[in-house]
Amino acid sequence: MSGKTDQIVEQVRSSRVWRSVFRSGTGNSTLHRALAIQQNIFLHLFATKVRKRMVRFSATWYLGTLTFGTFLILVITGILLMLYYHPSVPQAYADMKDLQFVVSSGLFLRNLHRWSAQLMVFLVFAHMFKVFYRGAYRTPREFNWVIGIVLLIITLLLSYTGYLLPWDQLAYWAITVGSNLSSSVPLVGSKIHFLLLGGNQVNANALLRFYVLHCVILPLAAILFIAVHFWRIRKDGGLYVQQSEPKARAATESTLSAKEGQ
Amino acid sequence: MSDPKDFVAGIDSDQRHSPTRVVFVTRRTSAQVKVTSEDQVQTYPEVMFRAALAIELLAIALVLFSLFFNAPLEGIADPTHTPNPAKAPWYFLGLQELLHYFPPVVAGVLVPTLLIISLVIIPYFNVNIEANGLFLKDRTKRLRLFYLASLGMMIFLLVFHVYVAVPPTVLVALAMIVAANSTPDSPSRLCRYLARRPLAYWIMTWFLFELIVLTAVGTWFRGPGWSWVLPWRS
Ligand code: HEM
Prior knowledge:
Order of helices and strands of chain A: HHHEHHHHHHHHHH
Number of helices of chain A: 13
Structural class of chain B: mainly alpha
Bound molecules: protoporphyrin IX containing FE
CATH topology of the domain at 65-235 in chain A: Cytochrome Bc1 Complex, Chain C
Strand content of chain B: 5-15%
Oligomer: heterodimer
């Protein structure tokens, strides 16, 4: 049976239509595999080859990959949630109740979005510390580290703006506590506070603003910066590898410098 | 190059992995092999497959979790009824905990701004790039500075009654003292490890510990009026 399936797959892949879409062609030579990456606008962000050592779980714990995974899940579940959600008061809260009791699998959808969001924040921090502790921020990767910080901030803002959308007590007061901080910025504090909320306190305008940020502006910014982040990994020469210097030499060097210091 | 014998030449060739490399090393410089060629795998299919597998396992775990645990939903927003305590999302509770000790300008504006700036400059700051153990060079001077800095930090925390931030500080300071009294060839693995840690490592580790402790305290141990509560007693 598998012979038959293979045959059909092969036929499809060598058909004219398929080949007009995927220009790399079929075959499993090294060249074909390299082309599969190189000839694809999205995969082209990545290098065609990777150091074997860096593919191991212990190298990165796959934390960046998993962060990206949570982001994918959030985009998919988020779009589905948008089909049922109105960013207005008090309809927003009623929509939450509908998701819970009326929409089939609505509760599950909301759970998945909420828990993935929490996990994403956690994973971004974990990824940052992992990158730090393996020293992967050093030259020439400085700028990718900075892009990472931008992604960290975007992730926090995404989570924070999403927090208001259910329009329940938890949402309302969390955003009140947080946004009040912005009014303590010297000189322009109250202006920033007003700009953020579209008013002097959390109200329907704030909900609409947070909705636009959460569903349009911040996701677009995240996608843009994730693309740059991935592309920079290739441009910076792949993932950082710890240079394993000969043990003996490293030891003498450090004892020498220890003596110098005393 | 007047003297034609002023250099040595070498050839490295492994056509399966890379084009031929020719290297010329002049006598005046000393050659050091920093990177040796190493095994590579192809992104497609090997890396793509592993990434897809990782993301699928993640998705399965999240789906299972979402089937058993419901997202919280409280009553409709009511501006006239303030819950006590009103808490920010968990990842900001470390900052909210600081808000308990410092005025909003400090906890809400100054601290986050400084945090972001310090995170951004990590790779640009020379001290951070240095990969040598903190106390391996200028030991006496650095030790003195270290004692001064830790003492200053402790006094600062105690003056503002930020007792929750004390244990992480003490822990890191103790580890640094162990590091200062170890050499990179000490018999204990832990001592060898600590002795080689650079300054950036210590600062980041302190930040990580404070982050964990402050966030945990804000999340589980704070109740009405931001007073201490025990999470298993409510
Ligand atoms: C939305 C958030 C993010 C996503 C999706 C993401 C994704 C990734 C992925 C897939 C990698 C490949 C290696 C790995 O898995 O560790 C990576 C590497 C890297 N990430 Fe991130 N990342 C994010 C946020 C951050 C943050 C917050 C930082 C640090 C402040 C950061 C800094 C880096 C650096 C410097 C590398 C290169 C590591 C090396 O060369 O070995 N990233 N990122």
